[in-house]
Amino acid sequence: GAVVSQHPSRVICKSGTSVKIECRSLDFQATTMFWYRQFPKQSLMLMATSNEGSKATYEQGVEKDKFLINHASLTLSTLTVTSAHPEDSSFYICSASGQPPGAQYFGPGTRLLVL
Amino acid sequence: AQKVTQAQTEISVVEKEDVTLDCVYETRDTTYYLFWYKQPPSGELVFLIRRNSFDEQNEISGRYSWNFQKSTSSFNFTITASQVVDSAVYFCALSEDSNSGYALNFGKGTSLLVTP
Question: Which residue has the higher pLDDT, A44 or B97?
Answer without folding.
Answer: A44
